[in-house]
Amino acid sequence: MIPELGHAALIVALQLALLQGFFGLAGAWRDNPGWMAMARGASVGQLLCVLVGFLALAWSFVVNDFSVMNVADHSSRHLPLQYRVTATWGSHEGSFLLWTLLLSGWTVAVAWQGRQLPADLHARVMGILGLLAFFFLAYLLFTSNPFMRLHPPPANGSDLNPLLQDPGMVLHPPLLYMGYVGFSVAFAFAIAALISGRLDAAWARWARPWTLMAWTFLTLGIMIGSWWAYYELGWGGWWFWDPSENASLMPWLAGTALLHSLMATEQRNALRVWTVLLALLAFSLSLIGTFLVRSGVLSSVHAFALDPLRGLFILVFLCILIGSSLILFAKRAGSIKSAAQLHMVSRESALLTGNVLLLAALATVMLGTLYPLILDAFGGGKISVGPPYFNAVFVPMMVPVLLLLGLAPRMRWGEASLPDVLKQIRWQAVAAVAIGLALPLAFGDWRWQAALGLALAAWVILSTVTGLLARRLASGGLPLSAWGMGTAHVGLAVGLIGMGLVSAYQSEKTVAMKAGDIAQLGAYEFMYQGAQEVPGPNYSAMRGTLELKKSGQTVGTLLPEKRIYVRSKMTMTEAAIRYGFSGDVYVAMGEPLPDGVWSMQLYLKPFVGWLWGGALLMAAGGVLAAMGARRKDNKV
Amino acid sequence: MNLWIAIGVLILLALACVLLPLLRKRKALGETTAATRWSAAGVLGMLPAVTIGLYMYLGAPGILTEQALTQAQTSYDVDGMVKALEGKLKATPNDPEGWYALGRAYIAYQRYDDAEEALRKATIQAPKDARIIAQYAEAIALKQGNLSGRPMELIQTALDISYEETKALELAGLDAFQREKWAEALHYWRRLVKLLPKDTDHHDAIAQAVATAERKLDLSLGGSGMPAPPPPPQKPKLAPH
């Protein structure tokens, strides 16, 4: 009965979403306060109903109700409880249900927080969010229904993909989706502002905290995804330029551009058209990202063609959404052109330049991601665009962005003097170059990747910290948003140090080891003590034991595993990682060789943890900035 | 039924969410337009109708009864069945098959007094049914702990009616075995083995009993004898105290 109730709840939610969309937009159009109130009420009801649906699906997973097809396909009796819970969003259907749930949550938050907004703008935002939810619920119910039933039910399910049986999976999709869905609020604000023609500084002030929160979630989601790939995929990489990663990077780049542009609009009423365009872009890219990852089009264009309904549904929706918002944009953009004049040297123009560079980088990522798909779709054969392309194209674009990042916060709004700014930061620039040139020598081997990473990081950190210090001295205090900016920028620099050093100095070795063998890598000795079979709840593992020694002293024991999952027969590599401040020691079991010999992959990853530490700092900066923006919002 | 009540609650909740803010607004503003009233009425009509219609189209409301049926078939509730049968026989006591089934159920619960009573009624109502008479004999034997006396009389009656009554053959063989009349036991059981379907537990148990009886007979006739004492024949609960 529970799954059927969940199904009915989604059907009720679908109608509530439609009512919210209709009464929100029509209420604003006809200036009918009753209808506007109904739209807000509908959003609350919708959240309740989607929550009932989500909990019903989770319940079906927890109690192993294999009469629900989704449960039969993505769980099994032997799956541990925590993964039965997370399997709720491990499938295509479940992840869209999660999307919808988060969208409803954001919507109710807007309904709650938006009381200080002008009534018509608020109602329009609610209406647009309602229509978005209507689409997702219709998509769920008619093409990806999580409550399809099987009768008679199978005795056992076919288990969850072993890749997803991991703590990282608990957090990665919800955080990522919180980010994606959060951009829908900025999108709804932009459309509402376009409809009402009231695209001013106030609009930017309302939209900015939401955008910052969405960006923070997306940053965390990408960070956890990267960390998960690092420890779960077994070859110690942290970014593969894989299309599904790129799908999350693209909205992140657009979102980063958006939140900087919103600042210029809020402070100076500048770049208004540009800001609106970015808001449309960030959310459209979120949808495209979801479409790419979830329609199966990435694994193969032909897989998509086998079940075209789902993909087609999203594709049509994307066309309608992007098309209609661009038409609206084209009609209204003329009337919302910024009054403020843009000077060549000013913070606005620096932000704009940075934005354009970010978008150019985004375009290269998009090209590398979509080109193989398009080629394949037109029968051009399968090609894969990998790291060589992205490293050659993306990285050079980011260098000027980082240079600007140290420069822009020093510039004044309106008009700045370039010689002044350069004079302020000349010592920081010299110090950064010196650090970049000298510090790599400390690693015993001068490498350009390390030099570049360290120099840029030093530049960002020095200019940011000295800039904030100067501001504090001048005005006696720093607003929260300045702390947020500082933390996020320093976080980016910390991540940069990690990227530079790990790509320059990581070392690896593949060795065949039998019990008693010792392998040497860097300053470490790995003494292999043998492998034994250990049972898991739904897998059986061979677990190797390696004693880790550094200059003769035992510093730890590493226990890498090779698992075979019972139901799916999939083999998984569980790497053993010794995390450290200045780098990780990483061991993965390769293949078994005759006579009890195993091939082992040993890696040293200097400063790799700084990558994720930096991302965490960036997210913390996002939270601080959002709090600062909210505070200002309340004051006005 | 419960599902429809739950869906009803869900619809009421949804209606409350949409319409209560409107009522509050009306209190605050004092008046509503005709458009607002009509839209409220529309919502009131639409939500239940569309929900039920879409659910009938997309959902699987029938699966609950199907599941209930399957469950009843696979793991029926014996207690409930016995109670239901007792009630049914109270209302329509003239039902030898019913009394027979109830008697067997009582035997399964080791309620031998009740079993004897139920099967007695069954034999009165169907005095020519060898199967029921043999079952009645077993109930009495289980109650008194052995087959001698009344049970054997009944078994003989059953065999007189039909010499292919499996329960009667089994019990007659057992009686002979207990009296160490090996050849007699073999007579009944060999006949029984031929009647039972192969590859069933019952068939195998009787075949084993036949083998045991054959060894005993061999020994008693001064043959080579077989090592190891044989396992007791089936139905150990009927072994003499």
What does this structure look like?
The complex is a heterodimer of chains A (636) and B (241). Chain A is α+β, with helices and mostly antiparallel strands. In chain A, 65% of the residues lie in helices and 12% in strands. In chain A, strands 2, 3, 4, 5, 6 and 7 form a six-stranded antiparallel sheet that branches. In chain A, helix 5 (92-113) packs across helix 7 (167-196), helix 16 (448-475) packs antiparallel against helix 17 and helix 17 (480-505) runs antiparallel to helix 18. The mean pLDDT of chain A is 88. Chain B is mostly helical. Residues 224-241 of chain B have low confidence and may be disordered. Helices cover 75% and strands 0% of the residues of chain B. In chain B, 29% of the residues are buried. Classes of the chains: A alpha+beta (636), B mainly alpha (241). Chain A binds chain B through residues 1, 4-5, 7-9, 11-12, 14-16, 19, 23, 30, 32-35, 37-38, 40-42, 44-45, 48-49, 52, 67, 141-142, 145, 147, 149, 151-152, and chain B through 2-3, 6-7, 10-11, 13-14, 16-22, 24-26, 29, 32-33, 35-36, 39-40, 43, 46-47, 50-51, 54-55, 58-61, 63-64, 66-67, 70.
Topology of this structure?
The complex is a heterodimer of chains A (636) and B (241).
Chain A: H1 2-30, H2 33-62, H3 69-74, H4 81-86, H5 92-113, H6 119-143, H7 167-196, H8 201-232, H9 243-268, H10 272-294, H11 301-306, H12 308-333, H13 347-377, H14 387-407, H15 418-438, H16 448-475, H17 480-505, E1 507-513, E2 518-521, E3 524-535, E4 539-550, E5 553-558, E6 561-565, E7 571-574, E8 576-578, E9 583-593, E10 597-606, H18 609-635
Antiparallel strand pairs in A: 1-10, 2-3, 3-4, 4-5, 4-6, 6-7, 8-9, 9-10
Helix pairs in contact in A: 1-2, 1-6, 2-5, 2-6, 5-6, 5-7, 6-7, 7-8, 7-10, 8-9, 8-18, 9-10, 9-13, 10-12, 13-14, 14-16, 15-16, 16-17, 17-18
Chain B: H1 2-29, H2 34-58, H3 63-74, H4 78-91, H5 96-108, H6 112-125, H7 130-144, H8 150-161, H9 166-178, H10 182-195, H11 201-220
